[in-house]
Amino acid sequence: MARKPGSSPSAIKSRAARTAAALAPAGGAPAAAATPKKKGTNPVQFFREVRAEARKITWTTRKETWITSVMVFMMVVLAALFFSAVDGLLGLGAKALLSFAAG
Q1: Where is this region: Disordered (predicted)?
Q2: What was the pLDDT predicted at 17?
Q3: Dist. CA 38–CA 48, nearest whole Å
Q4: How does DSSP assign 46-80, residue by residue?
Q5: How far is CA 6 from CA 15, 16, 20, 77, in A?
Q6: Residue-level pLDDT at 40
Q7: Are 59 and 50 in contact (CB under 8 A)?
Q8: What is the reported pLDDT for 9?
Q9: CA atoms within 13 A on the CB side of 19
C-alpha cells in the first residue's frame, strides 16, 4: 500500500512547526511564557470589566422574540403529532400481534 504524500515523519514535524509558529503570540514569546493573571484582582477593575462585558450584550427585539416563540410552539405541536401517530401505529401493531398470538 502506497503512502500518501506528506505523511512522512519529517513532513508531519515541519507542518506542526509551521502551525505552532502561526499560533504563537506576535512577540515571538512562547505561549507558556505569557504572564499569568493575578488571582486577587482589584474589585474596581473587576466591576469595570463586568460593565465592559455587559455593554457587548445584544438583546433580541420584541418581534424576534415573538417569531422565535411561535416557531418553537409550531415545532412542539409537529413533534407531538408525529410521536402520537407513531405511538398509535405501534399500539395497533402490538394489538394485532397479541390478537394473532391469542388465536
Answers
A1: 1-40
A2: 81
A3: 16
A4: HHHHHHHHHHT--PPPHHHHHHHHHHHHHHHHHHH
A5: 9, 12, 18, 53
A6: 65
A7: no
A8: 79
A9: 6
Name the one residue in this structure whose C-alpha cell is 413533534: 79
Residue 26: the pLDDT is 62
pLDDT value of residue 34? 55
Instruction: Determine whether 36 is exposed, middle or buried from the number of CB atoms within 10 Å of its CB (0-12, 13-18, 19+).
Output: exposed
Say which amino acid occupies 31: A
Cα angle at 94 between 81 and 78, to 5 degrees?
A: 5
Assess contact for 79 and 86: CB atoms under 8 A: no
At position 43, the amino acid (one-letter code) is P
Three cell numbers, residue 89: 401505529
Evaluate the CA torsion angle 46, 49, 55, 60 in order and state its sign: negative
Q: How many residues are present in the chain?
A: 103
Mean pLDDT (10-residue bins), the chain, 103 residues: 69 80 66 58 89 91 97 98 98 94 84
